[in-house]
């Protein structure tokens, strides 16, 4: 009988590619034992184990990428720190100018949006959210009317206590 690992037993695949014959089962290999455990368990357990395995693999990859990112940031910060310190008289006023400009622009934009919405609302054109505003207004009016009725009755009773003939 010929040796199965000799070149004469290499199998031919379609399209001319060759593969080596399968080697013997290594029972003690950790991946093989893990796969056997997956196959021997119920489908629910194998799905849970596969999910746990996928979780640990993706978590490890993300942890590695986080470490690389933090390391690159720290090294870049160390490398550019002298340039940042030397050019700080330029960066601080520039930062303040840009921050102030963006703040003013944001406030003006939001004011224009609110004024536009109010214009549409008071003209009766029903902008987005006008139903909620109408509902809140009616709830506030109803609550105020209930408080007025309650307070009117309460104070009217107190007024009779103070002045019985009134």
Overview of this protein structure:
- The chain is mainly alpha-helical.
- Helix content is 74%, strand content 2%.
- It contains four helices and two strands, in the order ββαααα.
- The chain has a two-stranded antiparallel ribbon with strand order 1-2.
- The model has no long low-confidence stretch (mean pLDDT 80).
Following the backbone from N to C, one meets helices and strands in this order, namely: EEHHHH
Number of strands: 2
> Proportion of β residues?
under 5%
**Strand order in space, largest sheet:** 1-2
Query: Which bin fits the share of residues in helices?
Result: over 70%
Mean pLDDT: 80
Q: Helix and strand layout, with pairings?
A:
Layout (H helix, E strand, L loop, with lengths): L10 E2 L5 E2 L10 H11 L2 H44 L1 H35 L7 H33 L4
Antiparallel strand pairs: 1-2
Attribute tags:
166 residues, mainly alpha, two-stranded antiparallel ribbon, 2% strand, flat
Q: What is shown here, in short?
A:
Residues 1-15 have a biased composition (Polar residues). With 166 residues, the chain is mainly alpha-helical. 74% of the residues lie in helices and 2% in strands.
């Amino acid at each position: 009988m010929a040796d199965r690992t000799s070149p004469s037993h290499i199998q031919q695949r379609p399209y001319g590619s060759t593969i080596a014959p399968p080697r013997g089962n290594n029972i003690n290999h950790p991946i093989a034992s893990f796969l056997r455990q997956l196959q021997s368990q119920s489908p629910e357990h194998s799905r849970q184990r596969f999910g746990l395995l996928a979780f640990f693999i993706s978590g490890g990859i993300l942890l590695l990428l986080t470490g690389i990112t933090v390391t690159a940031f720290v090294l870049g910060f160390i490398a550019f720190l002298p340039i940042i310190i030397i050019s700080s008289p330029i960066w601080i006023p520039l930062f303040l100018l840009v921050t102030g400009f963006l703040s003013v622009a944001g406030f003006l934009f939001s004011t224009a949006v609110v004024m536009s919405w109010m214009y549409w609302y008071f003209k009766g054109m029903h902008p987005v959210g006008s139903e909620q505003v109408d509902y809140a207004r009616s709830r506030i009016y109803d609550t105020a009317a209930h408080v007025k009725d309650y307070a009117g009755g309460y104070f009217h009773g107190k007024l009779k206590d103070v002045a019985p003939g009134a």
